[in-house]
Structure formats: structure tokens, C-alpha cells
Design goal:
One of its GO terms (cellular component) is membrane. The protein has 243 residues and is of the alpha+beta class. The protein is built from 10 helices and 6 strands; from the N terminus they run ααβααβαααββαββαα. β3 and β4 form a beta hairpin.
Amino acid sequence: MKLILIFVICFSTNLLSAEKKILQKANNNLNDQASLQRGAMLFMNYCSGCHSMQYQRYQSVARDIGIPDELMENNLIFDKNSKIGDLMLSSLNKSQAEQWFGGVIPDLTMITRVKGVDWVFTYLNSFYKDDSRPFGVNNMISPNINMPHVLEELQGTTEINFKEKLIDGKMEIINEGIKSKGNGRLNEDEYLSSLRDLVNYLEYSSDPSKLKREKLGIWVMSFLILLIIFTFLLKKEFWKDIK
């Protein structure tokens, strides 16, 4: 029994290590307000039709990332029945989701907490053409996913990039990830930058108070440093006549 347990632990560790090696670094910056705004725009245009953010409100998002309420209402709230103070819910109902996608569409409010920012970034950059799948695409890190490549118009049609390489004296075919045909609206660098904006917004949504905590933390640390300096000078003043 102990041997089986050790084997399972070792095997699981190896799998986790392998997954970490293939993940691409998002390198997003939560303090980049323009990036958060662009990410919110991408989410609303490409994700919100199916995915909800049931723990976020339009108005809270707008105020957190510096979007005027009027601009949010006129340009980023597509459901005419929704108001600025409403929760960010998808218009796709449960029966439609089961009929079209075979199951319930996940809420994305906490997705980066559950999966990690780098995983989400890599996932969105891992779709490739696969005519055997219902939506004509597959995903390298989440195989057989029932989801279309919603960002295909930006990235273009992608295929697995196989190359021949000489390894130990033998020619072997190596999978070097995916490669776009170049028929998208964005080039590779622009697409990765857009993905970075999107996951930046998703990370913010998973913990909106983080922005405020970090800003408050800077003021608190600055106050403590000044307090230490003042206390040190006060101590010298009190003890200068004592030998």
C-alpha cells in the first residue's frame, strides 16, 4: 500500500511539473489601467456572450479600472435589459448551453484563481484547427474541449507546428506548438499583447480588492518608515544627555 501511495505521489508530481514546463508566462501587470480597460473590452466583446461574471457588477468594474459609467453603459453593456448596477450575467441560459455546448458554461470570475494566470494565458494561445471536433478546433492543453476558438478572427486559423529535428543521430518529428496562418486581424505580437490584456482583466476580476490593497500597502509602508525614522530621532533626543 505504501509503495502504491509513493508511486501515485511521484507520478502526480511529475505530471504537475510537466504541465508547469509547457505553460507560457503571461507577464501581465495589474497596475496597468489601460491594459485592464482593453481586457474588459475584449471580455465583453468575445467572452460575455457565453460566460458570466456573477460576482462582478458593471459599475464596480467601471470604477475600479477607470471607465466612466456612461461609456460603460453605451459601449460595453450589450444586453439592453441590463443596467450599470447589475451583475455581469451572460444572456445564454442553461438549456441553450446544454444544447449547444453539451453542458453548463463556467463562470469566469474566479478562473485565474482556480487555474492560474499562466494556464489561462496558455490555454487561450493553444487552439488549433481540428475538423474532427464539433467546433472545428481543439486545444493542446485541454484536449477535446467543447468550445470554439472565439479569438480566431484576431489570431487567425492555427495549426500544430510540426518540424523535423536531428536528435541523437535520428530525424524525429517534434511538436513545436501552434502556428497561425497569418489570416487574423493581429500579428503574433499583437495577439499575445491582447491575450495579456484579457488575462490581466480576468486576474483583476478574481480579486478586485488587490489593486486597492497594493496601493494602500504602499502608503502604510511609507508611513511606517517615516514613523521609524521619527522614533529613532526622538530616542536620540531623549537620551542625548544620558551617559
